[in-house]
Amino acid sequence: MLQRIDLRGVSVSRSVLADKLPRAAFNIEHALDVVRPLIEDVRERGGAALRDSAEKFDGVRPAALRVPAEELERAATQLDPQLRKALEVSIAHNRAGHRAQLPEEKLTEVMPGGFVRQRWIPVKRVGLYVPGGLAVYPSSVIMNAVAAQVAGVEGIALASPAQAEFAGLPHPTILAACHLLGITEVYAVGGASAVGMFAYGAAGEPGTKDPEVLCDPVDVVTGPGNIFVAAAKRLVRGVVGIDAEAGTTEIAVLADATANPEHVAADLLSQAEHDPAAASVLITDSTEFAERVDVALERRADATKHSERVHTALTGPQSGTVLVDDMDAGVAVANAYGAEHLEIQTEKAPHHADLIHNAGAIFVGPYNPVPLGDYMAGSNHVLPTGGTAVFNSGLNVHAFIKSVQSVEYSREAMEKVYPLLKAVALDEDLPAHAEALAARLDTE
Ligand SMILES: NC(=O)c1ccc[n+]([C@@H]2O[C@H](COP(=O)([O-])OP(=O)(O)OC[C@H]3O[C@@H](n4cnc5c(N)ncnc54)[C@H](O)[C@@H]3O)[C@@H](O)[C@H]2O)c1
Ligand SMILES: N[C@H](CO)Cc1c[nH]c[nH+]1
Ligand SMILES: [Zn+2]
Asked: Whose CA is nearest to atom 4 of ligand 2?
């Protein structure tokens, strides 16, 4: 079922691997051309463009782009009790996980009387994206919102696609999760249009009940989504801050012959059900094990609810089994691939996990399948895709806070270093710098 890429006997240098590893044919570069005009349209026509996009891509023209407060409350009231409990546990676990990321303010005495204070300041207003095309993602409401709230962000807006089945509102579980988290500014807007609305703001559509200003611009846009969402985030980066490009889901499993092929197949399939473009990659040094995973995958893919989507994902060029000589080569492949999620199912799983430096999140050992992290491990499931884990992190509080240093020197401390400061200023041919220092010391 999975294509085979045989790297046995092949040098595992980074450049060789970059060419040989499975990747999607329609990548983010292609999607940029699709989303650019959508974002421009939102800038020019605001609410009218947002409704046109919803009609085109989500099959419904929302009456209210801003979700009325009573709909949020109603959705929470009607939430199934077990699901409510699950969302509450997920919120609690994620709060604990994200609090651990908070850096502390520090005052450092660099020299006698010369202090530098390290401050961490949350941005004021953020736009959180929650996907809603092929599946329902209340878990992504939690992942986005908890990180922002723990970071101390005051203004939180959230967007998720309009649903034809729910009269143009986002899915009720999305609305209920917002209510549980105290988020009141919610939009029925999907895809690149939502990202554009957050980055530039949007005017209301004349002749509707929209206010004149439908949505104010935000400082940071975060959240997962399909390739069009990831491309839109790349386009607005610089106008606003973004987290990683958290696009189409990927899973890689590094497994040796000691792993359970049924578990590995189930995990590969679990992420393939997100999207026909999802990537499932097995990295192993055992052909027998690869065969057994393939057999299990065939059976499971036929039986699962989203069988067609899963088949497309597993047989696409972005998925495959990579055969390697040994686990050292497997680790090199995993690092070159930089998976969004990397499971380590080997005899020495903790040892191999320590050798990984490129992955959005690592799931170590047999009892850590990706869906645990998707919902309530306490880690964040909004993770970098497309190999960007080489330089990007999963969503965390740092996406919402800025590091600001404040310089706090006494006159004596500044005077002490003045001759050295002057020497550098004059060497840089910036004498006014030296003069600004001298003005304080009556040495002009
Ligand atoms: N990396 C992560 O952290 C992470 C987490 C959760 C989900 N995901 C991924 O999020 C995605 C969710 O995708 P989805 O489709 O279900 O929901 P989505 O909300 O991301 O996408 C739906 C929106 O895509 C836009 N769209 C659809 N077709 C388009 C086209 N041809 N041109 C331009 N725009 C178009 C529309 O605006 C639509 O509202 C999946 O790919 C899933 O794997 C990633
Ligand atoms: N696996 C997804 C990240 O790529 C997150 C998710 C949400 N719901 C289920 N799974
Ligand atoms: Zn998932």
From this structure: 249
